[in-house]
Amino acid sequence: MTESRPPRPTLAQIAELAGVSISTVSKVLNGRDDVSRDTRAKVDTALRQHHYVRRGTPAPEPTARTVDLVLSGLDGSWPASVASGMEAAAYEAGVHVAISVARSSTAATNHRAQDWVDRILERGSAGVVLGLIEPTRDQLGRLAQARVPCVVIDPLSDPPPDVLSVGTTNWAGAYEATSHLLRRGHRRVALVTGPPQHLYSRARLAGYRSALAAAGVEVDPAEIRHGTYDRASGAEQVRALLARPTPPTALFICSDHMAIGGYEAIAEAGLRVPEDISVVGFDDLPEARWVSPALTTVRQPLKEMGGSALRTLVRLMNGEELESPRVELATTLVVRNSTAQASA
Amino acid sequence: MTESRPPRPTLAQIAELAGVSISTVSKVLNGRDDVSRDTRAKVDTALRQHHYVRRGTPAPEPTARTVDLVLSGLDGSWPASVASGMEAAAYEAGVHVAISVARSSTAATNHRAQDWVDRILERGSAGVVLGLIEPTRDQLGRLAQARVPCVVIDPLSDPPPDVLSVGTTNWAGAYEATSHLLRRGHRRVALVTGPPQHLYSRARLAGYRSALAAAGVEVDPAEIRHGTYDRASGAEQVRALLARPTPPTALFICSDHMAIGGYEAIAEAGLRVPEDISVVGFDDLPEARWVSPALTTVRQPLKEMGGSALRTLVRLMNGEELESPRVELATTLVVRNSTAQASA
């Protein structure tokens, strides 16, 4: 692990960025409570933007460091893949990984409800990777105040500029998936993406639109649907698409689970994949290989994303300056048996 | 969390059980190095059998406790389900869960190779749950010496009597699966189980035999095959069964992954599930629902096993006496679409 650290910003630089006095910065750094919450938040943000490391409080020894992976849930292949990649990178870096689910404060039964931030700070965390959860401003502020760096995997919404994130090339993946269908002669290519407020749903929608535009195919707004990334919503949206007067001949469905739901709706309608309708998914979870026909899908490098998030976190823990607050790892189209040439 | 502890055994009791002198027990307890490795191991075993808690070294406060989940790997649904159940129970118990993979000492690249025991002891572990890995005598000894309790999920071989384990009712699950096929009129019911040296492979084989015996159906040794719990070995064993002069009409395949491999072999032979051949799996991983036809299988309560292992560990951490060193949670047969009535 490298020992080099970037030059430390001065209090004056932090004060200027936060728009407060130097003495206010100093108060925040010293944990004084005569600073308003708003002001403290401004200073914390400025400290984070400079990746400010407080003097005199050295990072714990590598052997003692435990980082946290906090996820929306542990079920299914997404968390398993991310955790697997992160654990392997942690082993290499000599840190330990604690896993937990970000529960709402009403989920606890015989234990007092506890926010995940309080829980990990109470134990002592060297850093945290968040997967599929969106930290609040308040949670980020408390992490910053405790000097616990944070990296978000697949941020749900536009992350604030000072929050580091690791994602995947959603736009390019969607562009490639849509182009694959267009190259096979499909012209009525419908889209099922996720909730419009999610950053990656919008990126995939944009990639789809760009591919259609590049092929000179007009976008039909009625062929764009929004599901909620689960199997049932995939089935529901595909049912609606198949009920149209001129149904699509190809579907780009922005998650494997929604695509598997789509398979059900297609079977209900008495249609076959890929003879009657082609389907492309997104994620390349193991289940994409189990279904029949095996699903053509856009592979997200989830293990690599877990590994990259851990390595980014370790660099922050070591006080290194990062070249970019956001990293996107490349998707790849995995062609299997769910896509075929459009019939004439 | 309870504070009650069982009466502490005397040094004389430990010495008698280990067949050594009291002063030798004392030397081991005090970490002296003038005791042979063999003798130390005997004393450690005796200490473990009495769940001996050293005086003057109280367990760390609950808020500081991190337990380890050490697995053979993190990929796939098995680890995800176990981790999910364990994490939920840990939240309730107020402990943290660190996850890691039990690597061989040659797996590390830029980090010195480290046995998982050394790695977790170096950080400080309050207890460890092992999944699908078999601790050596030496590893168990080092954990005992560091007073780190250990619970094994699904032990691969007969665990020593002093090692606590959480498993599932493999015999009863296999009995139920085989009976389900017999009740549907099948008489040539073949078995694909795991390696014969694995405890749970043998338990499943015994359940299969008992169900056939109860139905008055003779066991044909040629219809009993051993795979290695992966998809490819399932396909291979089923190919061999289908190549027999009188092939079976039903298969009980002792893991979902092997059963999915079996589906491939059946399709290659131009046969259909369940019209031509019925299939029952074991595990009920999510992929059992993704395949077509959806797989009838024996559900292992993996989440509950993870939760039970954690709760057992916490009781050991609290110095409680356990009523049984081994707990088996019940399996349930989940009937889906891969089994049908035998044709006349």
From TrEMBL, chains A, B:
| Keywords noted in UniProt | DNA-binding, Transcription, Transcription regulation
Per the record, the domain of life is Bacteria
Q: Is this entry keyworded Transcription?
A: yes
Q: Does the keyword Transcription apply?
A: yes
Q: Which residues form the HTH lacI-type domain?
A: 9-71
- PROSITE patterns assigned to the protein according to its UniProt record, in alphabetical order: HTH_LACI_2
In Gene Ontology terms, what is one molecular function of this protein? Answer: DNA binding
Cited InterPro entries: HTH_LacI, LacI/GalR-like_sensor, Lambda_DNA-bd_dom_sf, Peripla_BP_I
The protein's matches in CDD domains, at most eight in alphabetical order, are given as: HTH_LacI, PBP1_CatR-like
> Which residues are listed as membrane-spanning?
none
What this protein is called in its record is LacI family DNA-binding transcriptional regulator
Q: What organism is the protein native to?
A: Streptomyces chisholmiae
